[in-house]
Amino acid sequence: MDLKDIKAIIDLMKKNSITEFELERQDSKIRLKRGLNGGSLPAVQYEDPTLPPPSQPAVPVLSTSPVVAPQAVATGEIEIKSPMIGTFYRAPSPEANSYVEIGTEVNPDTVVCIIEAMKVMNEIKAEVKGVITQVLVENAKPVEFGQPLFKARSA
Amino acid sequence: MFEKILVANRGEIAVRIIRACKELNIRTVAVYSKADVNSMHVQLADEAICIGEAPSAESYLRIDRIISAAEVMDVDAIHPGYGFLSENPHFVEVCSSCNIRFIGPSPRAMQLLEIRQSAVRWPKKLVCQRHRVRKALLRKNRKH
Which of A135, B45, B54, B99 is in Cβ range 3.0-4.6 Å of B35 for a Cys bridge? Predict the structure, then answer.
C-alpha cells in the first residue's frame, strides 16, 4: 500500500464522516482513526502480521494478561497471576485475617490467597520471592485464567 | 427459556450459536484460550472469560475450567457446539451434578451412538479384509 492509496482512503473517510478504517491483507494491516473533532489528523497504525496481535478483547468482563507465570512488568514489579478460574478469597475463612497484605514478604511457597473452583478451595502460592505492593482483586470476586491477582516487588 | 448460557466452543460454531441466542434474547458468555483473545466469538458475546493457554487440551477440552467458568459467570446452561466436549457423556454428567443444563443429547444417547458407530466400523473392517483376501487369491490364480 503506498502513500497515494492512504491519502485516497483518508479523503474518503473525511468525505463520508467515517472515523475508523481497518484493512488487513496477507502481508500487511493498516488502521486509520480520525480525531473526534473531525478536523484533527488521523492516527495511523501500521501492523506487521508477524508481530503478536494486541491482547485486548472488545467485550471483556474480567481483565486478561499475556502469560500466566509471574513476569516483570515495566516498573520492575512482578505480577502473581491466577492459574485457574474461580472466586478469589483473601483469607481462609470470613473471620480469619488475609493471607497477605501490602508489605507482606512472600516466598515461592507462601500461600497468598484461595481460589474456589467447583466447590474446592485451592490455595494459591506466590511462586516468587518478594514483597506484596498491590492487591489487584477484591475479596469474593470472580477471576479468570491468567488474571493478575497481586503485584510484588522482587527481593 | 434460559437467561444466560455459556458457549463452550470457538470460531464460526460459537458465532452461530451466539447469533441465535441474540435473536432469542439469551445472554451469552464466550470462553477463549489466550490464542483466541481477539476472535470474533469473544467480541460478539455479551461476556467473555479466559479459560487457559492456547492448546485445546489446556482450554476448550478442560471440563474443570469450562464448569468453573460456567459457575463464576452464573449461567443457566452450556451449549457445547460441535466437536470438543459435545459428544462427551462424562461432561454431561458433570454439568448435571453442578446443576447446569447441557444443551445437547443425554449421556445415554451419546453412548448408544458410540455403540452404533462401533457396530458399523467392525463389519466395514471385515468387508475390507475379505476384499483383500479375494484380491490376493485372484493374483495367485493368475500366476498359475
Answer: B54
Could you read off the pLDDT of A105-136 as tens digits, one per residue?
Answer: 999 999 999 999 988 999 999 999 999 999 99
What residues in B contact A66, CB-CB < 8 Å?
A: 34
Which helix (H) or strand (E) is B134 found in, with range? helix B107-143
Task: Round to whole Å and give the CA distance between B34 and A68.
Answer: 10
Contact B72 A142 (CB under 8 A): yes
Yes or no: say if B7 and B17 are a contact pair by the CB < 8 Å rule: yes
Instruction: Say how far apart CA A102 and CA A152 lie, in whole Å.
Output: 9
What residues does each domain of chain A span?
A: 3-47, 77-154
ipTM of this complex prediction, to 2 decimal places: 0.75
